[in-house]
Specification:
8-stranded mixed sheet, alpha+beta, 39% strand, 18% helix, 9-stranded mixed sheet
């Protein structure tokens, strides 16, 4: 889909050269973005964009003045996508702990279609780290559109025919949605919101929001100034000072309190910004520390239990040492991994091997229908051993055959079964779906519960040409500074539910956040206990505070929905599926069992479904959606 989309945008830019804006405008035809990369990736959106969907090139013209271009015969198949000119942009980002809720609003004009004609308009929203769409609102003349979530088994969804081309995910981080039949010359006013994660490294948070607009979305009257606006609000959840380190745009500080800061950027510009909005900041501390935030549910919450969130910060660079590790890398080399997937896995693996400490030990198992071992036992990560491993990888990583995941997993568990004084880690990298997935999970669960004080950590990654994401996964798993974390007092609460139920390790590369619900009186004091890299005990006091200004339901909903979805799948529990649906609809987070729908409302009517309302159904597991007529 991404390759076809990029080619359609390239065709649309060529087609828009037919447009005439008048001699006094001194406007050159739009030029493609300059890039050494000649692939279709060049034309994928790097900021919220809107495109005219053109099947009939004969309707392409300036709606304000006729260009008198020669008639174009034939049709565009697939349709060309002409980037629309943008007249207004505003961005607001609210940061809470390690999550950010982003709200974007702007207006675009259908400048490339005759006033007497109409076309569909495709909205493309690239989101930042682990972005999840929350909602879209669109205003056009005589109509408005808004999204809402419905259950998969909703009769309105099941009984209607859907058009897959109407929306979905172009890539995991690019959401697209099509608005039908927009008149040439009219304006679309669009509001979009999504939630994404902050990056964390070396004691600093980093926020990156896609905000780089190509030159050709700037309206032709270039001397007319346009206003850009960015507002950033930071709530760290702590009472420590926030220190802003770097910004992409000149931000003016509006608010400064303990644990909170507010910033604003406003400027009159002749061309829209061509760089992403980026900011980095630190929450002062050189050591491991944490806290608990309490919150009461809203009156509309279907679950009236109290809410809590517990967090641990890894602190600065010297706050904790990483464990000595014993690592087994399981790499799928089946036929489906051919070309980019296997090449990405190979590059990420080699890069990780070179970063291992000489006291760490490792092994590599390549698998398809069979298993191929780098060594019969674990090897210390000396420079000589790593060099031999790289040679072995280049020799053995040839795609072919089927996929047997359980065999290499069992072999990996045997390799790390007798570790003493070290931290066992298994990485499973695959693009395959196998028939015995539940059996694999059941076998691994029995392995983990039967191990000693530090059981093996298993990291799984289903790849899709995402080498940088694999490198992040490797880095996180190799930088554990606290293991076997427990919060004993939580067991004394009534009707307590914790996400995740097994508390993860603390890495120097990320925050540790767990959330949950409870009844009763939360303890006035709380301690987190863990094991350090030398296997000595570690205890930290957690500061407890109440928060009224955090949207708890949205910040932690995706983590809870993902965990419940996995439990529902593994246990084949319909009650858990229903719970996911309920939580998804309440919080606006798309899940495996819900679909995002598009509601059309005629101007002047009440905001109810009209007989011709459209429903866009999005399937996050398949990255597709369709439009249903209700």
């Amino acid at each position: 889909m991404a390759e076809e989309f990029g080619k359609s945008v390239e065709d649309g830019i060529k087609l828009s050269k037919r447009l005439y804006f008048g001699k006094d405008r001194a406007v050159a035809p739009p030029k493609p973005q300059m890039s050494m990369d000649k692939s279709s990736e060049t034309f994928l959106p790097r900021a919220p964009m809107v495109y005219a969907v053109i099947s009939d090139p004969g309707i392409v013209d300036n709606p304000d003045m006729t260009s008198y271009q020669p008639h174009v015969h034939g049709r565009c198949d697939p349709p060309a996508l002409i980037p629309l000119q943008m007249n207004r942009i505003e961005l607001e980002a609210d940061s809470y702990l390690d999550s950010v809720i982003v709200r974007f609003s702007g207006s675009w004009r259908v400048h490339c279609v005759m006033g007497s004609k109409s076309c569909d308009c495709r909205i493309a929203i690239p989101m930042g780290e682990q972005g999840s769409i929350l909602g879209v609102e669109v205003e056009v003349p005589r109509k408005s559109y808004s999204t809402e979530l419905i259950a998969m088994d909703d009769k309105r969804y099941m009984e209607k025919e859907c058009r897959p081309e109407s929306g979905g995910f172009l890539k995991p981080y690019i959401f697209i949605l099509t608005i039908p039949n927009v008149d040439g010359g009219s304006t679309l006013s669009i509001k979009v919101s999504w939630i994404q994660k902050l990056l964390y490294r070396n004691g600093e948070f980093s926020l990156i929001v896609p905000f780089s607009f190509p030159d050709y979305v700037t309206p032709p009257v270039k001397k007319l100034a346009k206003k850009e606006k960015i507002q950033l609000n930071i709530n760290s959840g702590t009472e420590t000072e926030i220190m802003c380190k770097a910004t992409s745009h000149p931000l003016k500080q509006l608010k400064r309190e303990a644990g909170k800061s507010g910033f604003l950027y406003e400027a009159d510009v002749l061309t829209w910004t061509d760089i992403d909005f980026a900011v980095s900041y630190s929450v002062s501390s050189s050591h491991i520390y944490g806290g608990v935030i309490l919150h009461s549910p809203s009156v509309h919450d279907v679950d009236q239990r109290e809410l809590f969130s517990l967090y641990l910060f890894p602190g600065g660079k010297s706050s904790g040492k990483a464990f000595r590790k014993e690592i087994v890398f399981l790499i799928d080399i089946s036929g489906s991994m051919e070309a980019k997937p296997l090449e990405g896995a190979k590059n990420a693996l080699i890069g990780t091997l070179t970063k291992l400490d000489a006291k760490d030990s490792f092994n590599i198992l390549a698998f398809n229908g069979e298993t191929y071992s780098f060594s019969s036992s674990m090897e210390l990560a000396t420079a000589e051993t790593v060099e031999r491993a790289v040679e072995w990888i280049n020799l053995k990583f040839i795609a072919g055959g089927g996929t047997n995941i359980l065999l290499p997993l069992n072999q990996a568990m045997e390799l790390v079964s007798n570790t003493h004084g070290s931290f066992p880690v298994i990485y499973l990298i695959t693009d395959g779906a196998v028939e015995n997935e539940r059996q694999i999970c059941d076998v691994m669960q029995s392995h983990l519960t039967s191990k000693g004080s530090i059981c093996p950590r298993i990291y799984t990654f289903g790849i899709d040409s995402v080498e940088p994401q694999m490198q992040k996964l490797f880095a996180k798993g190799l930088s554990t500074i606290l293991a076997n974390i427990t919060i004993d007092t939580l067991d004394d609460l009534d009707d307590v539910e914790v996400y995740p139920s097994r508390i993860p390790d603390l890495s120097s590369e990320s925050l540790l956040i767990i959330s949950g619900r409870y009844r009763g009186n939360f303890p006035e004091t709380l301690k987190a206990k863990a094991v350090l890299e030398d296997l000595s005990n570690f205890v930290v006091d957690l500061k407890i505070q109440n928060a009224k200004d955090m949207p708890f339901d949205k910040i932690f909903a995706k983590q809870q929905i993902d965990l419940l979805t996995a439990q529902a799948w593994f246990s084949e529990n319909k009650r858990l599926e229903d719970k996911v649906v309920e939580m998804s609809i309440q919080t606006g987070i798309v899940s495996e069992y819900t679909r995002l729908s598009l509601l059309e409302t005629q101007k002047g009517n009440q905001a109810t479904e009209s007989p011709g309302a459209h429903k866009v159904s999005i399937d996050p597991s398949k990255n597709i959606c369709g439009i249903c007529l209700l």
